[in-house]
Amino acid sequence: MTFILTDLSLISSSFTNHQHDSSYSSFLHCLSTTFPISYNLSQLLHTPNSSSYSSLLNSSIKNLLFSTPSTPRPLLIITPSNPSHIQASIFCCKLHNLRVRVLSGGHDYEGLSYRSSNQKPFVILDLSNLRGVKLDSEQGTAWVQSGAMLGELYYKIAHEIKSFSYGFPAGICPTVAVGGHLSGGGFVFTIHKTLSQNAVDLVNHWQDIAHRLPEDLFIRVIIQRNEMGEVEALFNSLFLGGDLDLGLNEEEDWGITSYSSARVWGMKYFKGNFERLATVKRRVDPGDFFRSEQSIPPLVLEMEGEEHGLVESS
Ligand SMILES: Cc1cc2nc3c(=O)[nH]c(=O)nc-3n(C[C@H](O)[C@H](O)[C@H](O)COP(=O)(O)OP(=O)(O)OC[C@H]3O[C@@H](n4cnc5c(N)ncnc54)[C@H](O)[C@@H]3O)c2cc1C
């Protein structure tokens, strides 16, 4: 108990310049009493004054557009080393009305795992320490924690299972984490061209123009064999200058994301699956606790929101 109080006082002092000091103290107190007693809090909670804060934050920022002094910073970075820490963090964030950004590998193109564009106070839940991979070749299953990188998963499968019958088809970038990949992955505009569709000329032409393209436009080419065994060139393209350009979520009066505002970008991105995803969200997170500027909203009608008491205290 003595240890926790000492640790908490160190952490609280880093918030002294903040206008909501007492609510931060109360938030930190909540974490200190909810986290299991045997853990060293200073290794799990990183305030802006902690020496670890900047390096942790900077290592998450894979899109340098969001590494600027004006990018909103989290109030706290939490680095759970045990699933119970996640439960405790969510409990306290909910109690104190703080937004949570879940971060696994940090490759989100819009940076939604480590920044917030709406200026609301938020906390990063950095899952990079939770990267266990357990393989069961008899059952043909794998249990993989959210922070494990795709490269780590491929490596484990190759080294622990001495059989060519098993593999896991996922992204080509080894540092993308399993958490973000499985919960959405990378939607990139791709054009496939086979040799009979002029792939050679196109690749030649691409080499001439690639270095002259605007900096905001990224086009890369991957040459591979397709399922029919034909050689093909894949042109992946991404507009880097866009910032949530498909649309932003808005909140309803009772405090959850408006389905109709989210539908504007959601239908472009997920097409017919958007409504199905919103129906699932309604079942698993009707209060819309896990949200971002482009998160799936719960499919809740306005009247129902009031009936179900889905009014967030502000
Ligand atoms: C350099 C680079 C290369 C890439 N290469 C490929 C590729 O080869 N193939 C491909 O398909 N995609 C690729 N992508 C896209 C990548 O798969 C997605 O951006 C993916 O969402 C990144 O996951 P992450 O965990 O690394 O990122 P994060 O930024 O940590 O997470 C991405 C999103 O998922 C959410 N999230 C993360 N973990 C959880 C969790 N446990 N629960 C709920 N939500 C969670 C975050 O909040 C965020 O919104 C690439 C991206 C980059 C930047």
Tell me what the structure shows:
It comes from Dioscorea zingiberensis. One of its GO terms (molecular function) is oxidoreductase activity. Pfam families: BBE, FAD_binding_4. This protein folds into four domains: 2-129, Uridine Diphospho-n-acetylenolpyruvylglucosamine Reductase, domain 2; 133-182, no CATH class; 189-239, no CATH class; 244-314, no CATH class. Helices cover 35% and strands 15% of the residues. The chain has eleven helices and nine strands. It has helices at 2-13, 21-34, 41-44, 51-60, 83-95, 150-160, 178-182, 199-209, 259-270, 273-284, 302-307, and strands spanning 45-46, 76-78, 99-103, 122-126, 133-136, 141-144, 189-194, 217-225, 231-239. The strands form three sheets. The chain has a four-stranded mixed beta sheet. A three-stranded antiparallel beta sheet has the order 7-9-8, with helices on one face. Helix 1 runs antiparallel to helix 2 (21-34) and helix 9 packs across helix 10 (273-284). The chain starts with a helix and ends in a 7-residue tail after the last helix. The model is unreliable at 1-19 and 310-314 (pLDDT under 50). The structure holds flavin-adenine dinucleotide. Flavin-adenine dinucleotide binds next to strand 3 and helix 7.
Short structural summary:
By secondary structure, the protein is of the alpha/beta class. The protein is built from eleven helices and nine strands.
Question: Any descriptors?
Answer:
four-stranded mixed β-sheet, 35% helix, Uridine Diphospho-n-acetylenolpyruvylglucosamine Reductase, domain 2, single chain, globular, three-stranded antiparallel β-sheet, binds flavin-adenine dinucleotide, 4 domains, alpha/beta, disordered C terminus
